[in-house]
Batch of 3 targets.
Target 1
Amino acid sequence: MENEDRMKFHKEVLERVNGNLPSISAQRQNFDKETVFDYYINPDTRQWENWKPSEWTAPKRLVFSQLLIPTPDS
């Protein structure tokens, strides 16, 4: 999604959850605008949680062209 579409989607989701998202750290608020893309719904607790990439360890044989590093955009 492009930024404009992300903001439209963010506003639509906020209306449906009544603005009930967890807060982000003060440090992140200085650099990033909080959107629903900073969160995911934990399937076990059914609660919004801050998204963070899973811990990654490099394979023994590293093929750079085959790497997929998890980010909020991927």
Target 2
Amino acid sequence: MLDAWVLDSYAVLALLQGEPGAEDVVKQIEAAQQGRSRVLMTWVNVGEVLYTIERRRGSDSVPQVLGLLEASAVSFVDVDRSLALMAASIKANHALAYADAFAAALAMREDAPLMTGDPEFGQLEDQVSIHWLGA
């Protein structure tokens, strides 16, 4: 099975805005395009990206960003019962955003590194491999 990487909203927003760490995200998406890895993201985290884009740039930007994401090699993961229960447990035991709990749960389930720059994930470093963007 191919290596997997999980993106949270921070990683995608860094990519879209050309922030530090964007090159790491591009590298993994290109590897997925070439069939050398898988890049995963939950629809909850996609929603987080889209509401952030709408707040910052307006609703007219949302279809364009969604189109770019859907045209990329990122595989979007539906939230099923097991993922929702994992995220709920993570949220219950850690002070982080609920959407972030879904990214962490997916990374745990897939045994994949999570690409982020969000410092809230620091409290999960003993449970999830974190690839810190911009570090």
Target 3
Amino acid sequence: MRVGSIAVVVPLTLFWTGPCREGEAVSAAGRDLFVTHCAACHGSDATGNGPRAGSLATPPADLTRLGEKYGMPLPVDTLSAFIDGRGDTHAGREMPAFGEHFFAGEPDDPRHEQARRVAIALILDYLETLQQPPASP
């Protein structure tokens, strides 16, 4: 499961220097990472209706509404910390700490830390493309 993600993410670390806004390959990489690591709970459409959603004590968030909650563009630092989950951002939550999940077993390798950051940035970039307009009052 992680091997496919590593194959996509590690080459991208060689040229990625900021927010990913262009290129079908980058968008596809973000979508692939989302499907592999997030869709089981959040659903393939990111609305929180994944196959594991019913078994969770807290329903997964509708990730297509992050823009309503946080504003646009999405706050990369805030959401990256939440997805990464290392530290105290996941206290009492069922969501895995993906900072530990990505490239587990080799935490001290700086290339893997960069790859973690890139993977999370790619997922966030993909999620930004899924944002729905604010609901009418």
